[in-house]
């Protein structure tokens, strides 16, 4: 299951959101609908849980509808769930954050493509957010403390 979470600012007034998923990043299908904010000017936090059994990279976006039925699209995010030794993660390109979920407290490392150690992480059970805004665009690897699990991710500008 993938939990999608987003917020709107006080200036946004969306009637509803269509949640869309793609396996190739270009052809999207509607998978759900979430009602929008209350009165204009309210900030909102919204969630949608994709119950699909996801084994490969999936791409998500929102189709945001205003009261006059005009719509825009959000940025596309790629989520690649990884379940090995209780370690799952995805890279949020818009926020330049690595979201790491572990079943129990553990340590991990982020290394560059040439093997240089960039960050050592102390992870608590549950979801951990790791800022990647201080690293250059490129290919990186998340490695668990035992070296049993190594997963690749890409940081874009």
TrEMBL record:
InterPro entries: Secre_tail. NCBIfam families: Por_Secre_tail. This is T9SS C-terminal target domain-containing protein.
